[in-house]
């Protein structure tokens, strides 16, 4: 190998190694998908125990919920309506879901079990979870401030 070829191979190996270590760190520090799945599982367990059908995950609702959690964390507000006045229903429709049903939000909880337990202990949040006419769900989590959004569809 020529010195130039050797240098190119070493540089490529370093870049690949750096990228792999960054990817490993990113994957390890981003527990969002398992937390989202756990929220859905816990909600469905509660619903089926109460006689409701389990909810199906809808990617459009997940997108709306994820973006809302991130927006609340980034801009430091906690509300179903954005500072510009965009409502839950408008956000869900903008994400492509035609039939918004309900929304639960929470902050400060550090686990899926904790947030679902809190929602189930709140009359209004529990009412949304146990609404048997709702069929779909999307969950969004932002760990900067532990913002959680649960969007339901019909």
UniProtKB/TrEMBL annotation:
It holds the Pfam family CAP. The keyword Ribonucleoprotein does not apply. The keyword Signal applies. It comes from the Bacteria. InterPro entries: CAP_dom, CAP_sf. Keywords: Signal. Residues 1-23 form the signal peptide. CDD domains: CAP_bacterial (cd05379). Residues 41-152 form the SCP domain. This is CAP domain-containing protein. It comes from Saccharopolyspora aridisoli. The lineage of its organism: Bacteria, Bacillati, Actinomycetota, Actinomycetes, Pseudonocardiales.
